[in-house]
């Protein structure tokens, strides 16, 4: 009985990995990670705050930007505790239930962010192709429904995938490849037939990311078709410039996401540093770069940030 209980405890405990070969430098490596998390949290919280408090930003484009900031934090924050526990040599252990919850949040918000980017592409399509109907089509009620539907779609899609993990025995290595849990990482350790998880995962990626990316592509085909009809070059440039931030956000999410999936599925025997590097880019780069890009490219966001930092000076200059 004692042996069985010990086996069950062992099977529910996994061990996270920091940066292999650089364990003695983990404390120093944690400094840039800490800065990235700090910048990402502060930048996205700033975006959320100014969109909520500035009446001038109560428009569809900025509501979707607030959703993007929310999903960015939802995707990266669940990894923060386990990452610093490893880098600060507090503990490498993570319980199976905690691991599943972490996976649920990471993958759910990853798929949700893809849906938000699709919604932002549709927002740009309506703004450029149907400007006179923009406010009547993208009402606050519709925007709220889109956000809720995107989150629920991603959450419910992940439940069958993660629920099956509870029935897998993990009788070999319990060492994960990263400092947090990813589904494609943990199923490699299962001593069972994982064909359903592999196939379902591929179908999920194809349907969710595939349909979202297809929708984004189609939206931009219509946008370009409409922009090319504009007679003046300045008008065409101005219309396309409103899409620049969104295009950057799409690339920032999809390029690391696709790269991480390819590395996990087709480069299993490559250096562990490649897997770790891609995994951290996938989770930390979008939350840091997205608010910076939108702050640089969007005048209203810049003004909101300046008003937040220097309220008296900005108010006096407007009077």
Question: Descriptors for this entry?
Answer:
14 helices, single chain, 2 strands, mainly alpha, 319 residues, globular, disordered N terminus, two-stranded antiparallel ribbon
Could you explain how this protein is built, in words?
This protein has 319 residues and is mainly α. Helix content is 75%, strand content 2%. Helix 2 packs antiparallel against helix 3 (60-76) and helix 11 (244-266) packs antiparallel against helix 12 (272-297). The longest helix is centred in the middle third of the chain and has 34 residues, at 96-129. It starts with a helix and ends with a helix.
Tally of helical runs? 14
The end-to-end span amounts to: 79 Å
CA-based shape: globular
Order of helices and strands: HEHHHEHHHHHHHHHH
User: Which value, in Å, is the CA radius of gyration?
Assistant: 22 Å
User: Which strand order do you get reading across the main beta sheet?
Assistant: 1-2
Sketch the major β-sheet.
Answer: 2 strands, antiparallel
Mean pLDDT: 85
Number of strands: 2
Secondary-structure-based class equals: mainly alpha
Low-confidence stretches: 1-10
The percent of residues in helical segments reads over 70%
Portion of residues in beta strands equals under 5%
């Amino acid at each position: 009985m004692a042996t069985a209980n010990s086996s069950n405890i062992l099977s529910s405990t996994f061990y996270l990995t920091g940066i292999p070969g650089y364990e003695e430098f983990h404390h120093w490596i944690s400094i840039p990670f800490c800065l990235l998390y700090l910048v990402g949290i502060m930048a996205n919280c700033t975006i959320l705050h100014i969109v909520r408090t500035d009446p001038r930003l109560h428009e569809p484009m900025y509501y979707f930007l607030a959703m993007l900031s929310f999903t960015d934090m939802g995707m990266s924050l669940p990894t923060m505790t386990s990452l610093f526990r490893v880098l600060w040599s507090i503990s490498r252990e993570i319980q199976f239930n905690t691991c599943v919850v972490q996976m649920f949040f990471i993958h759910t918000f990853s798929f949700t962010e893809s849906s938000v980017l699709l919604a932002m592409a549709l927002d740009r399509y309506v703004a450029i192709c149907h400007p006179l109907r923009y406010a009547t089509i993208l009402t606050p009620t519709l925007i709220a429904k889109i956000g809720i539907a995107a989150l629920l779609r991603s959450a419910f899609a992940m439940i069958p995938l993660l629920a099956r993990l509870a029935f897998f025995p993990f009788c070999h290595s319990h060492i994960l490849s990263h400092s947090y849990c990813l589904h494609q990482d943990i199923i490699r350790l299962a001593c069972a037939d994982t064909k359903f998880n592999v196939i379902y995962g591929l179908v999920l990626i194809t349907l969710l990311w595939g349909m979202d990316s297809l929708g984004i592509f189609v939206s931009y085909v219509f946008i370009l078709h409409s922009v090319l009809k504009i007679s003046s070059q300045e008008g065409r440039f101005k219309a396309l410039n409103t899409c620049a931030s969104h295009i950057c956000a799409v690339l920032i999410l999809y390029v690391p996401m696709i790269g991480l999936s390819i590395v996990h599925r087709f480069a299993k025997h490559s250096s562990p540093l490649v897997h770790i590097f891609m995994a951290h880019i996938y989770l930390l780069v979008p939350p840091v770069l997205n608010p910076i890009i939108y702050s640089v490219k969007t005048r209203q966001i810049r003004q909101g940030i300046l008003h937040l930092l220097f309220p008296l000076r900005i108010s006096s200059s407007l009077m």
